[in-house]
Amino acid sequence: MIPQFLRDDYPLEKHLFLIPKFALRLIGFYPESKLNTPLCCWAFFNFAILGYGSYGEFVYGVHYLGIDMQTALDALCPMLSSIMSLIKISFIWWYRKEYKHIIEEVRRLTEAQSSMKKMRIKRKFFTIATRLNALVLLLGTFTGTAYTVRLIINNMMLYLNQESIIYETPFKMMFPQPLLAMPLYPLTCALSHWHGYITVAAFAGADGFFLGFCFYFATLLKALQEDLIDTLAINASLPAKNAQATHSEADVISDLIDIIKRHNEISQLMQEFSSVMVGITLSHFITSSLIIGTSIIELLLSEELTLKAYCSQWYGYSVRLQKMILLIIIRSQRTITVKIPFITPALPTLTAVCIVAVNPVISNVGERANFQNFL
Predict the structure, then answer these.
(1) Which residues contact 168 (CB under 8 A, 6 or more apart)?
(2) Which residues pair with 25 in a beta bridge?
(3) Domain boundaries, the chain
(4) Per the UniProt record, which residue ranges are transmembrane (predicted)?
(5) Are the C-beta atoms of 328 and 302 separated by less than 8 Å?
(6) Which residue has the higher pLDDT, 25 or 253?
(7) Among 16, 78, 60, 24, which residue's Cα sits nearest to residue 294?
(8) pLDDT value of position 293
(9) Mind listing the pLDDT tens digit for each residue in 102-128?
(10) What are the backbone angles phi and psi of residue 24, rounded to the nearest 5°?
(11) Is residue 169 predicted with pLDDT exceeding 90?
(12) What is the C-alpha to C-alpha distance for residues 82 and 76, in angstroms, rounded to an integer?
């Protein structure tokens, strides 16, 4: 059974920002929602859950770095996604007035395009945007649910084998011990599970805004092209020198002025959209790069093979073996890279990303120290 909003006959006026509206309203961060005390409390609760969840995953991952790398990465990789979602909803809340203005203007401009040809364009782009956003939300929800299902299956297998149940949360986090014991353990699991859904709703809403705006702006530009083609085609079909042509030329000038005004409006909206999305886009690139880098950190640190070979008793062997060991030392110093579209994860790349991430903090601390020294 296909949901109605995925069908081709779904009303166009309901398509506009359908998935971002649902996802962000679920956690209290949709810009057009009326601010009141219950909404602010609900948004603050979800923000606190997401914030503490990110902190708990970070502490858990750092704690297990020297114990079990796989367990540590099981916490650190979701932690980066959680931090990214935290940053996204922070920017959305901070720029909620700007988002609301852009949404209202896009709605006004798209509703004005009502001809049959433009309706077909709107149907095409609006449907694609809704389906892609729904796919992101659906896959994210499945992923978040899979973490909880994994915990249930693991504990069920332990129970059937008459072994002690492991009191841990779906997303590996560090909690105070009383929260990981009965009777508070089910509540802790529920909050951890909801933390995963908040993460999904945040990135589905923010990414849905980005994708939706791109498709809606494309719709407006396509409609503008159709108006320009129709306007110039009417003018070209008339004789050049008669009263009707003169009257038509005045109409064409009026239509062209309207087209220019609409084009300026679209350009202004795109500039506003770019200004409110720049922080989210930069943060997304940094955290995604860190996720890729931490996932293959053992590959990037493969130069340790050089140290292991050099620190061995290689000089006590024959000349032939010494040459082979020296060859291993030379070969192991080559940089290993993993080819991924648009970015090549390597130690220099990861280092540059880390510098970009911490440079504002370092600069702020340095400026503060210089100011104190000046005083």
Answers:
(1) 151, 180
(2) none
(3) 16-234+254-283
(4) 35-55, 75-95, 125-149, 194-218, 342-362
(5) no
(6) 25
(7) 78
(8) 63
(9) 999 888 888 888 888 888 888 888 888
(10) -75, -30
(11) no
(12) 10
The overall longest dimension of the chain from CA atoms, in Å, is: 105
Give me the mean pLDDT over the 187-212 stretch.
Answer: 89
| Cβ–Cβ under 8 Å, residues 150 and 35 | no
Sequence-separated (6 or more) residues with CB below 8 Å from residue 259 = 224, 227, 228, 231
Phi, psi of 340 (to 5 degrees): -130, 140
Take residue 229 and report the two structure tokens written for it.
Answer: 């083609």
DSSP reduced 3-state for 175: coil
pLDDT value, residue 113 = 82
Closest by CA to 20, choosing from 206, 252, 266, is 206
Separation of alpha carbons 33 and 163, rounded Å: 49
Residues in the chain: 375
The pLDDT tens digits of the residues spanning 307-350 come to 777 777 777 777 787 778 777 777 766 665 555 555 555 555 55
pLDDT at 354: 53
What is the Cα–Cα distance from 251 to 249, expressed in whole angstroms? 5
Q: What's the rounded mean pLDDT across residues 18-40?
A: 90
In the numeric block, the tokens 């970015």 are attached to 343
DSSP 8-state class, residue 343: B
- Please state the separation of Cα 206 from the chain's center in Å: 7
Burial class (CB in 10 A: 0-12, 13-18, 19+), 330: exposed
CA distance 215 to 4: 20
Closest CA to 81 of 188, 201, 168: 201
Average pLDDT, the chain: 78
The residue with tokens 């994994």 is 150
Q: Which amino acid is at 333?
A: Q
Determine the distance from the C-alpha atom of residue 178 to the mean position of all C-alpha atoms in its chain, rounded to a whole number: 34
79-104: per-residue pLDDT in tens? 888 888 898 899 889 988 998 999 99
Q: How many alpha carbons lie under 13 Å from residue 91 in its C-beta half-sphere?
A: 24
**What pLDDT shows up at residue 335?**
61
Burial class (CB in 10 A: 0-12, 13-18, 19+), 56: buried
Contacts of 74 (CB under 8 A, 6+ apart): 61, 172
Compute the distance between CA of residue 178 and CA of residue 105 in angstroms, rounded to an integer.
51
Give CA–CA dist 309/323, Å, rounded. Answer: 12
Amino acid identity for residue 105 in this structure: E
